[in-house]
């Protein structure tokens, strides 16, 4: 804008320019692939690592890691004891707990504080982001360094190694899905792209968006040249930013025989409905939907709602949590009947919807839509003022 101020023979012109400056959020960092973050930190690590972040095993043959799975209790839950580095501050502990909570909500893996168990994870802020592959026996370190590894996807990546998962592009069938561009990989880095001929692929599809996939430029020796190219469609996005994918969850549930009904909804908007809707849902089901938008507050709106009515909704119910686990604060407590619930807004980009049914009487169920919510004003304006004076000659 321009403002003229005149007084007598003096004329002052005030000029004001406003430009949008980059927002101070970590947008660029958020956009970075999980694996790039890991490698950036591990560059300075003194730990000897294979494939960028895996501690080599004493016996290298155990790639089909059946003996190194964690044991399952008779109730179907796989409890993995862990200890946390006392050096972590409250925010770090929260970050690690949040990453663990998604395993608990979506799979039968529960991370539990160690009491006296022999085998456990010692989660420490060592030098880098790295882990062993599978259960090793005794206390095994998962390194989640305070500066650099404190991202949900990075923590989940390292925990998945400890659960017995390799990098996705190490699968025996990877050559059908990606082309490794050996010419852009320096000879010392080439073993990191090793393919494991007898990997356990669990009869589940190759997953370009696995939290366990390298990014396209991982270990590239030439700026702008990808080392992993999806085939046949080069434009498929590979690597991950947000956390576990639906296939990551499916693979954990299959490897550990978890009977879980769980879905991640990670689009900017979308919908969810009970199974068979609008026909009746089944008895004795328990499904969860983790809504994980990229940013902003998730809001949920029900379009249809028809559930068996019981006292206190102890039979069939929908319950909604403000976060990614059943230990998160409750946004909507157990709800049943046929009144359409009001819209719900979460305090963050995460919301968990639980649908549980008992063995008696079904109904048509529910249908709801979610959106990422209103865009918050994140723009910063920087203003410059210029003053010019002009004294008139009289
Ligand atoms: Zn890794």
Automatic annotation (TrEMBL):
It is found in: Cell membrane; Cytoplasmic vesicle, Secretory vesicle, Cortical granule. It comes from the Eukaryota. GO terms for biological process: proteolysis; single fertilization. CDD domains: CUB (cd00041), ZnMc_hatching_enzyme (cd04283). It comes from Geospiza parvula. Its main location: membrane. GO terms for molecular function: metalloendopeptidase activity; zinc ion binding. It is an enzyme of class 3 (hydrolase). The active site is at 158. This is Metalloendopeptidase. The keyword Metal-binding applies. InterPro entries: CUB_dom, Hatching_enzyme_Uvs2-like, MetalloPept_cat_dom_sf, Peptidase_M12A, Peptidase_Metallo, Sperma_CUB_dom_sf, ZnMP_hatching_enz. One of its GO terms (cellular component) is plasma membrane. Keywords: Cell membrane, Cytoplasm, Cytoplasmic vesicle, Disulfide bond, Fertilization, Hydrolase, Membrane, Metal-binding, Metalloprotease, Protease, Signal, Zinc. Its cofactor is Zn(2+). Zn(2+) binds at residues 157, 161, 167. Its EC number is 3.4.24.-.
């Amino acid at each position: 804008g321009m403002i003229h101020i005149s007084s007598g023979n003096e004329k002052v012109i005030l000029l004001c320019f406003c430009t949008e400056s980059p927002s101070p959020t970590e947008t660029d960092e958020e956009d970075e692939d999980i694996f790039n973050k890991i490698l950036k930190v591990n560059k300075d690590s003194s730990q000897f690592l294979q494939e960028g972040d895996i501690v080599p095993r004493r016996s290298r043959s155990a790639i089909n890691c059946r003996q190194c799975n964690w044991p399952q209790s008779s109730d179907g839950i796989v409890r993995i004891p862990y200890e946390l580095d006392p050096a972590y501050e409250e925010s770090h502990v929260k970050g690690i707990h949040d990453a663990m909570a998604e395993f608990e909500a979506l799979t039968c893996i529960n991370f539990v504080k160690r009491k006296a168990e022999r085998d456990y994870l010692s989660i420490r802020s060592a030098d880098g982001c790295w882990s062993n592959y599978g259960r090793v026996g005794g206390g095994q370190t998962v390194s989640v360094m305070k500066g650099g590894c404190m991202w949900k996807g990075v923590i989940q990546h390292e925990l998945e190694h400890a659960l017995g998962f390799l990098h996705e592009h190490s699968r025996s069938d990877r050559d059908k899905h990606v082309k490794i561009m050996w010419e852009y990989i320096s000879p010392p880095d080439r073993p990191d792209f090793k393919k494991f001929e007898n990997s356990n692929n669990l009869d589940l599809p190759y997953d370009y968006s696995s939290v366990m996939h390298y990014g396209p430029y991982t270990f590239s020796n030439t700026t702008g040249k990808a080392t992993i190219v999806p085939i046949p469609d080069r434009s498929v996005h590979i690597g991950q930013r947000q956390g576990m994918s639906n296939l990551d969850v499916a693979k954990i549930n299959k490897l550990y025989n978890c009977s879980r009904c769980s879905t991640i909804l990670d689009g900017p908007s979308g919908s969810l409905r009970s199974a068979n809707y609008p026909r009746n849902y089944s008895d004795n089901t328990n499904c969860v939907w983790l809504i994980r938008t990229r940013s902003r507050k998730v809001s949920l709106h029900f379009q249809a709602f028809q559930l068996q009515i019981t006292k206190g909704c102890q039979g069939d119910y929908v319950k909604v949590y403000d976060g990614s686990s059943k230990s998160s604060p409750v946004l909507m407590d157990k709800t049943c009947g046929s009144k359409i619930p009001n819209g719900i807004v979460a305090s963050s980009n995460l919301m968990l919807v639980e649908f549980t049914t008992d063995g008696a009487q079904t109904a048509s169920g529910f249908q709801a839509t979610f959106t990422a919510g209103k865009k918050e004003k994140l723009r910063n304006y920087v203003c410059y003022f210029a003053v010019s004076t002009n004294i008139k000659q009289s």
